Amino acid sequence: MSVSYDFSGKVALVTGANTGVAVSTAIQFAKSGASVVVSGQYADSRLTTVANECRSTGAQVLEMAADLTREEDMQKLVDKTMATFGRIDILVNCPDHHENASITEPSFMAKYRETMHTNLEAMVFMTSICVEHLEKTRSTIINMSSIRGAHAKPKESAYCMAKSAIDMFTKCMATELGPKGIRVNS
Prior knowledge:
The chain is an alpha/beta fold. It contains five helices and six strands, in the order E-H-E-H-E-H-E-H-E-H-E.
């Protein structure tokens, strides 16, 4: 059984689109007819490869590097998306920063802060700056979480805490943004 989706006329903004599940997400949106914004932390060959694969489906594609630890980069990403496509229908928050460390390691707090900043705070900020655009199109936010949000693993406490917080953030945003016509899932 094959499942197909029709996202013709929709614009999907996918962060973290040069690694992991965000790659296949961006490509699937393109295959389903959406215009796709592929964004990764660096303008590298992986991001270009994803953008080109999306283009090969016939989709309109905006390829743009945006460091999710920098609010000005995220704002530029949203501004460029709006200037290019005039709308955002789907926001896929898929930041992924994962550095393992034991709580007893001297580098733990630095790795913890970086993990929280990239995985959680970037998602919160991207959501906050996209709400006005998503409300106009009665749209969707997809926050990528992980089984690690519910299941602990040694030396992954920062990542597990970030993913658990993403799950709660998603529930909070679903209740807050639902009345605005914005569906939020993780």
